[in-house]
Amino acid sequence: MSDERVASRYAKSLLELSQEQGSLEKVYADMLSFTKTLNGSRDLSLVLRNPIIKHDKKLAIINSVFGGSMTELTMAFFRIITQKNREAILESVATEFVKQYNLISGIQKATVTTAVPLTPELRATFQQMVVERTGMKVELQEVVNPAVIGGYVLRIGDQQIDNTVRTNVQKLKNNFKENPYITKL
Length: 185
What we know:
Elements: H1 3-20, H2 24-40, H3 42-49, H4 55-66, H5 72-83, H6 90-105, E1 107-114, H7 120-134, E2 137-144, E3 151-156, E4 159-164, H8 165-177
Helix pairs in contact: 1-6, 2-3, 2-6, 4-5
InterPro entries: ATP_synth_OSCP/delta_N_sf, ATPase_OSCP/d_CS, ATPase_OSCP/dsu
Membrane topology: Peripheral membrane protein
Subcellular location: Cell membrane; Membrane
């Protein structure tokens, strides 16, 4: 079975268990913290995926890094995963948990790329665009890329709205190539 499917099943189990125990929001915060820590520490991520390091050593590392800040349910989940020798997929489980949480909570993630930082008015406009398209609450991530020059690129799930100057100029060039006013001989 692929790691994605295994991670999805573990995440679903943790999600359902945290819902039953009424600690869904706390476990969600734990998973966000876990993914943020792993994204910030390449060494920790590599340690968890390393098959040479013993499982009890990995659990000790997890306990020392996250033990005081996470819920007992999350720590118990980490212990179970470690006992089953599946530490390598912990990062995927956490990411999948966040995806499933967003799905049941009606939260849509979107990314907007612009040349300059967004003003509050523009941020509200982009959030409204996403709400109109999806009907869900929006979690907007902003990316500043000077190569965009002007306009924006908005990604909503697997959709992309590219309204950059570069794209519009390219469309204009293509229109001139297909000029209907010049007769072809």
